[in-house]
């Protein structure tokens, strides 16, 4: 028999590979669907590419690549027999086969046992060889099979380190000595005893000293007084004050220099008057918020509709998305996008074509992964109600824990998240992110990957007309810019309960000064009309240069809609920055209407009697010393050396730190850190800072003012990418940047004031072979009747129409800042509001429309 198997595998031996370092083994999920080893058909792993495929998709991969040998993985899940010992470790066979699934199972290990099965399958005859089969298989095949079985999941290394490393109990926990000094810690109003810091505060568990932590790259932190206190006193343990919940707290050991566990933390805290059971859990997956947690408690209850008996819904369009750990920002955005027909049609409607023409590695193809997620959400295949017989059996047994196995499990967005966040310093992390920023990131990716085909993000794009007026000469300039979202201010001064707010603020300050518990919070109630009025009011233009006066002057700007999008996105500007540059949320509600008419905000263009400002650019003024000795000035630019040293202490090369601080305009170590993360893979990352001479001659441009010489003849690729992502031809974008000395805002103005040159630039773009630089290079080939006729030949594509809208979805945020908290979304489907809270999907009883963060409207028909 051994000879027979060896002969059988001989023709396929050249295609069987042993996974090398760097090879990713996709043995937990199909590349085209959400099938896994726990699915009915199991999972097939190609023994050459190590890609995983469900039963429906493995034949496609075989036909496309000719790869014949696959490893079939199947996990059999069974309920424990009656009388099994409670809490026993589930029985496993081939325990290392699905090591990566241990973190991902959707059932209670104490109630179920499972058996893992692996075998080789040879296509097209489906000949099966059970594993392990060391004696009968050739040595190379045995080694390859063992390597695949023992390989970690393709995405395991992306899990947060804190999930992989077990925190140890501190050696000081059991014998910690606490001073009987009468210190009692109030429930809020904390601040460092040595400075005024109110963030990142740590309570020393020996003497009750409240002191600030050290500065961190994300902008949080303090002045390091907690560490100084340890060096002075040798008191080893401290607990983070704003992370204490009934489930535990973050404890740090200064002596052991790491986070530790304190089994006696409840007793240690009660010594200083802190009752852990009274502390409310207010963060998602352990991310911290600030001291003012009490207002957030009711917010969590209202937005998640806690306390209501919500009816679970199943079927097409009612599939939840698993939370990977602070990934709810992604889940809510994708749920809303795939509730829109244009996205459904683009990705799910073209599913077979996208799959059939996908590249050899579909895990790295944007269209494939979008189609996969869209099909998972809309097919109903992963949202099936439990059978009646199962429910009856559960009721008879009264085993409520077993219900978890039959409840909604949702689908995992792990593969899509890894793809769309690749190279992004924030979205690729496990930290909470801003859903609005991720939404714009997704729109940008959709546009970049829709060149030459239908672009579903066209529905969001619109033009804003900006009217700028010189206050002294009364002359005006009209420009247009592309946008995808309206950001509405939230004017607190317009709150209808202003008196209540003032009284609350006075009581809060008094309680803080006297270290008493804060009063019951009062949430500002702001009329939606006040937000809309604040958006349309004229705003001052900083550093306005009047081309009529040839000098700086006062200027005001008003914005109106030059076109109305098919789908309107409204973001409420609820977040501001605190003194530590950490985003904080304004505590308010806004009665957002179900129906919205913005027709009166339609732009009117230049009016009769208005005189335009001359089309002149401000001159570039060089300092006197640079004209005489330009190189000496450039060789020693102004750099914040304190910020450089802070970054260098983190371990980054000194020259890289200098460049980071210089290129971020000395705006502080946080901005410079972000620059480092974004550029650290570049080959010249650690090279010394080198600036080109301002006196180097360059080709002049007839579009700029006389005597204005561009500082750099080649515009930055980042600026070109931003303009091309808006739909402008690459050559036209380069010309605009060159004509405006690489000023992005002025380049946009130049593009709109020089449309007659775009046709020539479009022709020149056809010879440009750089990929993905122009998401709209074939935009004019579409015949969409809703496109604005005067913009179809040039400029960005917009779907103009009436300005009347109806609300169909909104995303809500709970928590104190975008760096923490949780997102849920509500979507109106079939006339009913539905709440999507990670994997849970239920009918909404009382949708909290006044507490949303991002609102989505669709245009009403003109009939």
From TrEMBL:
Which residues does Zn(2+) bind? Answer: 192, 195, 212, 225
Domain UBA residue range list: 638-679, 714-754
Instruction: Please note every region of biased composition (Polar residues).
Output: 772-788
- Stated EC number for the protein is 3.4.19.12
Task: Spell out the PROSITE patterns in the cross-references.
Answer: UBA, USP_2, USP_3, ZF_UBP
Q: Might you name a Gene Ontology BP term for this protein?
A: protein deubiquitination
Protein's UniProt name: Ubiquitin carboxyl-terminal hydrolase
- Can you name the source organism? Betta splendens (Siamese fighting fish)
Gene name of this polypeptide: usp13
């Amino acid at each position: 028999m051994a000879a027979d198997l060896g002969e059988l595998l001989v023709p396929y031996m050249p295609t069987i590979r042993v996974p090398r370092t760097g090879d990713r083994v996709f043995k937990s999920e199909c590349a085209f669907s959400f099938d896994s080893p726990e699915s009915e058909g199991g999972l097939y792993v190609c023994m050459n590419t190590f890609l995983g495929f469900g039963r429906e998709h493995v034949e496609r991969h075989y036909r496309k690549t000719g790869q014949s040998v696959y490893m079939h993985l199947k996990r059999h899940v069974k309920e424990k027999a009656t009388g099994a010992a409670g809490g026993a470790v589930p029985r496993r066979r081939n325990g290392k086969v699905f090591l990566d699934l241990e973190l991902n199972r959707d059932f209670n290990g104490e109630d179920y046992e499972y058996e893992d099965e692996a075998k080789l399958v040879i296509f097209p005859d489906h000949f099966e060889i059970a594993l392990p089969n060391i004696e009968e298989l050739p040595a190379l095949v045995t080694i390859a099979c063992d390597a695949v079985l023992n390989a970690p999941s393709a995405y395991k290394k992306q899990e947060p380190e804190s999930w992989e490393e077990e925190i140890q109990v501190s050696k000081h926990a059991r014998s910690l000595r606490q001073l009987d000094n009468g210190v009692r810690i109030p429930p809020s109003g904390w601040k460092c005893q040595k400075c005024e810091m109110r963030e990142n505060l740590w309570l020393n568990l020996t003497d009750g000293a409240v002191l600030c932590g050290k500065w961190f790259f994300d902008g949080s932190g303090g002045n390091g007084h907690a560490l100084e206190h340890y060096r002075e006193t040798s008191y080893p343990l401290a607990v983070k004050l704003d992370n204490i919940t009934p489930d535990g707290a973050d404890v740090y050991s200064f002596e052991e220099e790491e986070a530790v566990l304190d089994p006696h933390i409840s007793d240690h805290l009660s010594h200083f008057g802190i009752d852990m059971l009274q502390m409310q859990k207010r963060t998602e997956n352990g991310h911290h918020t600030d001291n003012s947690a009490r207002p957030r408690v009711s917010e969590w209850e209202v937005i998640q509709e806690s306390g209501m008996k919500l009816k679970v819904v199943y079927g097409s369009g009612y599939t939840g998305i698993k939370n990977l750990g602070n990934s709810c920002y992604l889940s809510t955005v994708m749920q809303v996008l795939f509730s829109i027909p244009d996205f459904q049609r683009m990705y799910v409607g073209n599913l077979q074509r996208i799959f059939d023409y996908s590249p050899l590695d579909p895990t790295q193809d944007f269209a494939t992964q979008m189609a996969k997620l869209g099909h998972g959400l809309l097919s109903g295949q992963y949202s099936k109600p439990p059978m009646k017989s199962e429910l009856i059996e559960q009721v008879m047994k009264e085993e409520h824990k077993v219900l978890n196995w039959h409840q909604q499990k949702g689908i995992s967005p792990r593969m899509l998240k890894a793809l769309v966040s690749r190279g992004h310093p924030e979205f690729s992390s496990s930290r909470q992110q801003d859903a609005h920023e991720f939404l714009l990131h997704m729109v940008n990716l959709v546009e970049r990957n829709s060149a030459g085909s239908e672009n579903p993000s066209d529905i969001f794009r619109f033009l804003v007309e900006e009217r700028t007026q010189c206050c002294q000469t009364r002359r005006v300039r009209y420009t247009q810019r592309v946008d995808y979202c309206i950001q509405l201010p939230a004017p607190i001064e317009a709150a209808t309960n202003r008196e209540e707010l003032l009284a609350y603020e006075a009581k809060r300050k008094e309680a803080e000064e006297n270290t008493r518990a804060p009063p019951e919070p009062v949430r500002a109630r702001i009329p939606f009309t006040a937000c809309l009025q604040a958006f349309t009011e004229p705003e001052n233009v900083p550093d306005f240069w009047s081309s009529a006066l040839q000098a700086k002057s006062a200027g005001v700007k008003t914005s109106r809609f030059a076109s109305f999008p098919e789908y309107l996105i409204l973001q409420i500007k609820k977040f501001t920055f605190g003194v530590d540059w950490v985003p904080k949320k304004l505590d308010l509600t806004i009665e957002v209407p179900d129906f919205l008419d913005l027709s009166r905000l339609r732009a009117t263009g230049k009016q009769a009697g208005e005189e335009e400002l001359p089309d002149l650019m401000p001159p570039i003024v060089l300092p006197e010393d640079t004209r005489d000795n330009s190189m000496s000035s450039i060789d020693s630019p102004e750099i914040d050396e304190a910020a450089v040293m802070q970054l260098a202490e983190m371990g980054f090369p000194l020259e890289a730190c200098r460049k980071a601080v210089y290129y971020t305009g000395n705006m502080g170590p946080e901005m410079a850190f972000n620059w480092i993360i974004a550029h650290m893979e570049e080959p010249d990352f650690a090279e010394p800072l080198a600036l080109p001479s301002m006196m180097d001659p360059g080709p002049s441009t007839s579009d700029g003012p006389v005597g204005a010489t561009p500082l750099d003849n080649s515009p930055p690729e980042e600026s070109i990418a931003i303009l091309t992502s808006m739909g402008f031809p690459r050559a036209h974008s380069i010309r605009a940047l060159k004509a405006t000395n690489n000023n992005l805002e002025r380049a946009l103005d130049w593009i709109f004031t020089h449309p007659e040159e775009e046709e020539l630039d479009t022709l020149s773009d056809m010879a440009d072979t750089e990929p993905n630089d122009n998401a709209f290079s074939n935009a004019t080939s579409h015949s969409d009747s809703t496109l604005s006729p005067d913009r179809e030949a040039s400029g960005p594509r917009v779907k103009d129409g009436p300005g009347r809208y109806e609300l169909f979805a909104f995303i809500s945020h709970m928590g104190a800042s975008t760096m923490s908290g949780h997102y849920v979304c509500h979507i109106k489907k079939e006339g009913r509001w539905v709440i999507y809270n990670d994997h849970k999907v239920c009918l909404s009883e009382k949708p909290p429309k006044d507490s949303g963060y991002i609102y989505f409207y669709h245009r009403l028909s003109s009939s």
